[in-house]
Write a structure and sequence with these properties.
Bound molecules: pyridoxal-5'-phosphate
Number of strands: 12
CATH superfamily of the largest domain: Type I PLP-dependent aspartate aminotransferase-like (Major domain)
CATH topology of the largest domain: Aspartate Aminotransferase, domain 2
Radius of gyration: 20 Å
Order of helices and strands: HHEHEHEEHEEEEEHHHEEHHEH
Structural class: alpha/beta
Distance between the termini: 21 Å
Helix content: 25-40%
CATH architecture of the largest domain: 3-Layer(aba) Sandwich
Strand order of the largest sheet: 1-9-8-5-4-2-3
Shape: globular
Low-confidence stretches: none
Mean pLDDT: 98
Strand content: 5-15%
Number of domains: 2
């Protein structure tokens, strides 16, 4: 049996007609930049995120970058974030000239540990950038408390967690802004790169729109230095087709997670911990095992897809050497990087596939 980590071809087989028709409509219209379809997607993403405004952008990375630029975060500023994330989180902070300041994670949820944030706040701190990893939101209550106390903005990196909730509140709706990615492997993935920013702040919304288009308003009059952060209508229409399936897909992922959880009960496999405050969309189902590297070899032999998200924490990345961090600075992030493994959780998995994956893992790990 073959079980890939993600099977986008299986998903596309059910969407082909709708996506082809929608893409063809864009091509016939030759409205290739912006337009009503992007606006329609923005309105729908704002609605499902319980936010007033949404701005379609070229990627999740550009959602973070535009947010930082529009909030005027730059040289001399510090932004507190997690070292255990995809590179874009810390990369964007550094790209605007600010300094990423890391604090360790909660070893159960893998998200930033809110108890450690206050000690990292300095006079230069401008923002906190929590990441909602694997589909589960960070502990936003105490994060917002620290932010309020020190007057910091909060940029939610919700790239992996669209429609996920914390105490009933949607990802992206708690902080100052929320950033989504439509990278094809996310729960709502486009047919290429794309992203979205959501906010309830009208002033910030206006700025995000201007920054998305080289900071110009009106055309050719540049008040700010922005970029080309636009979302293509081709992506928007494909995403509109997929959006109607998003909740069903997330339900299926949660059902798969329950199935695995049961299969792993009483074994040495540590299953994902989901806080009672959260509903996860399981962008990834990440287990923790002692013999991980041996397990990866076995899974490859058995044609089962798996991946380490992420093998090197940000504070140990070569490009961030100048920040002066060392091995041992964030022990929980470092430990997680050595032990975590994502296994197939995509909606189209059959019970036989899940059985095969789980039994293969238990056969080695015990
Ligand atoms: C995917 C992802 C991003 C970047 O999104 P892209 O659309 O690939 O640019 C940022 N942060 C996190 C946590 C992600 O998972």
């Amino acid at each position: 049996m073959q079980v890939p980590l993600l099977d986008l071809k299986a998903q596309y087989a059910t969407l082909r007609k709708g996506v082809m028709a929608a893409v063809s409509e864009v091509l016939e219209s030759q409205c290739c930049i912006g337009g009503p379809k992007v606006a329609e997607l923005e309105a729908k993403i704002a609605a499902i995120s319980d936010c007033k405004f949404a701005v379609g952008v070229s990627s999740g990375t550009d959602a973070l970058l535009n947010s930082l630029m529009s909030l005027e975060i730059g040289t001399g500023d510090e932004v507190i974030t997690t070292p255990f994330t995809f590179f874009a989180t810390a990369g964007c902070i550094a790209r605007v000239g600010a300094k990423p300041v890391f604090v360790d994670i909660d070893p159960l949820t893998y998200n930033i540990n809110p108890k450690l944030i206050a000690a990292a706040v300095t006079k230069k701190t401008k923002a906190i950038m929590p990441v909602h990893l694997y589909g589960q939101m960070a502990d936003m209550g105490p994060i917002m408390e620290v932010a309020k106390k020190h007057k910091l903005t909060v940029i939610e990196d919700a790239a992996q967690s669209i429609t996920s909730t914390y105490k009933g509140k949607k990802a992206g709706s708690i902080g100052t802004v929320g950033c989504f990615s439509f990278f094809p492997s996310k729960n709502l993935g486009g047919i290429g790169d794309g992203g979205m920013i959501v906010t309830n702040d009208k002033q910030l919304y206006d700025r995000l729109l201007i920054m998305r288009n080289h900071g110009s308003n009106p055309k050719y009059y540049h008040k700010y230095i922005g970029g080309n952060f636009r979302l293509d209508p081709i992506q928007a229409v494909a995403l509109l087709v997929k959006l109607s399936y998003l909740d069903k897909w997330s339900e299926a992922r949660r059902r798969n997670a329950v199935y695995y959880d049961k299969k792993f009960t009483g074994t040495a496999v540590k299953t994902p911990y989901i806080s009672p405050d959260c509903v996860s969309i399981y962008n990834q189902y990440v287990i923790r095992v002692p013999k991980r590297d041996e397990l990866i070899k076995l899974l490859r032999d058995k044609n089962i897809g798996c991946e380490i998200y992420y093998p090197v924490p940000m504070h140990l990345q070569e490009c961030f050497k100048y920040l002066g961090y060392r091995q041992g600075d964030f022990p929980e992030a470092e430990k997680a990087a050595n032990e975590v493994l994502a296994i197939p959780i995509y909606p189209e998995l059959t019970d036989a596939m899940k059985d095969y994956v789980a039994e293969t893992i238990v056969s080695l790990v015990g």
